[in-house]
Amino acid sequence: MTELLNYFLPDGVWAVLSGILIFYILKSQEKRDTKQDEREQNYQKIISDLTESLKDVHEIKALLDEKLK
């Protein structure tokens, strides 16, 4: 972080503030990406669970169709 500040310091306060803002944005994006990955994994698990439940529903329907014939 100090290297980044030393890089922008000769160009003035606005360059330093811009550098800090860029650093902050990159860190925030990294956190959002991590949260998005967790959500995506959770959605995949939900889809898998629903798929398994749907298979059970189809089996029950098939059994009922056989008994009602």
What keywords describe this structure?
single chain, 69 residues, mainly alpha, 2 helices, rod-shaped
Structure description:
The model has no long low-confidence stretch (mean pLDDT 89). The protein has one domain (2-68). It contains two helices and no strands. With 69 residues, it is an all-alpha fold. It has helices spanning 2-8, 13-68. The N and C termini lie far apart (75 Å).
Summarize the topology:
Blueprint: H1 2-8, H2 13-68
InterPro entries: Phage_BhlA/UviB
Transmembrane segments: 6-26
Protein name: BhlA holin family protein
Q: Class by helix and strand content?
A: mainly alpha
How would you describe the shape? Answer: rod-shaped
Number of beta-strand segments: 0
Could you name the ranges where pLDDT drops below 50 across 5 or more consecutive residues? none
Assembly type = single chain
Q: Count of helices? A: 2
Helix content: over 70%
Domain module tally: 1
Mean pLDDT across all residues, rounded?
89
Q: Tell me the span between the first and last alpha carbons.
A: 75 Å
Order of helices and strands: HH
Major sheet summary line:
none
Strand portion, in percent?
under 5%
